[in-house]
Structure formats: structure tokens, C-alpha cells
Amino acid sequence: MEAVVFDLDGVLVDSERVWDEVRQAFAAAHGGTWLPDSTRAMQGMSTPEWASYLVTEVGVRLTPDETASGVVDEMAARYAQGPPVVDGAVAAVRAVAARYPVAIASSSPPVLIRAFLEATGLSSLVPVALSSEQTGAGKPAPDVYLAAARSLGVAPTACAAVEDSTNGLRSAIAAGMTVYAIPNPHFPPDPAVLATVTVVASITALPDALG
Questions:
Q1: Which of 32, 60, 112, 174 is the residue whose CA sits 20 to 30 A from 157?
Q2: What digits encode the pLDDT tens for the residues 191-202?
Q3: What is the distance between the alpha carbons of residues 63 and 99, in angstroms, rounded to a whole number?
Q4: pTM for the structure as a whole
């Protein structure tokens, strides 16, 4: 293993519930009807993908661009009060970065990735931080993980990926990385997918699990 690539939402930031809350409220305010599988369907989607989903499937009466802008603005307002960083996440990234080059490969828009790095003081330790909206298809497609590996100058097969959701795990697996799962307690990943990766109990246990 030559590098470690972290997901952001659900791994380093406890934000999956915030995303869900903001999207549901936005949809309700703009004529949408939340579907039983909407929450899971959008996990891992890039910003253009989930914005289109909210319009075409949930029925939000705005354009995808207007929808994306409205939701991201509300998320940015939440982050301005301090991102909901997972306990122990910053120390874990610092410990891993002391041994390996690290990157972030996230479905969050760049503005929220930057807000996290600035708030935690990790910017100098994370030379590569990519959003799937910058790299092609969102998760479960492997695009953002492959782009992160290229930016690090490391083969995907020489990278470890750290994920929490079903679509994120599938993305990293498709990229050919060695995958470590920290299962999201609020939105547990598919057991069949978990069975194919290394499961770690928490972000604080990750540095030791990487060996």
C-alpha cells in the first residue's frame, strides 16, 4: 500500500443526516414528494446527479441548477457554524498522513470539502481533495477514486480507500483499491458488499487497521 484515500461524508464528517435533512426540507418547500428509497438512492451521487434526481424523481419544481444551488447554499450555511466532524477523525487523518500520502475522494461539492479542510487545519496534509462533480460520474462509479489515485501519482491497486456507504464501497471496489469500511450507523451498508471488504469499527481504529 502506497497511499490512502478517504471518503468525506460519513467517514470524516457526520453529515449524511444533515444532507438528508436539508434535501428533504428543500424538496418539501419546492413541491417535491420524498420517496421511500430517495435517501439511499442519492448517497454517493455527484451534485449534478442528485440535483437532477430531486427534480425528475422527487418532483422539485425548479431546474437542477437552481436545486443544486439552493441545497448547497444551505449546507454551506450549516458548515459555517462548524462542520460536524466525526470524533477522532482529525487525529486519524494526521496519523495516517504521517505514514502515507492521503487524499479525499468525495461526493460533496468542492466548497464543502474546502470548508472541512480549513476548519480542521488539514489542508496542508491532504494535497489531493476531489469532488465527484469535478471528475465524472458519481459513486458507485469509480471515477473520483481513479482521479484521486492519478493525482497522487499512485496506481489505484496500491491505494487503500476508506468508505462508509454501499455506493461508496462499490465505487472504491470498482476502482481496484483495497477497501476499508467504517459502516455508517445511520444508513448501514449492504451486508453483501461489506462481506467483500475489511470492516473497521471506527475511524479511531483505522490507523492500526492499516498496519
A1: 112
A2: 999 999 999 999
A3: 45
A4: 0.89
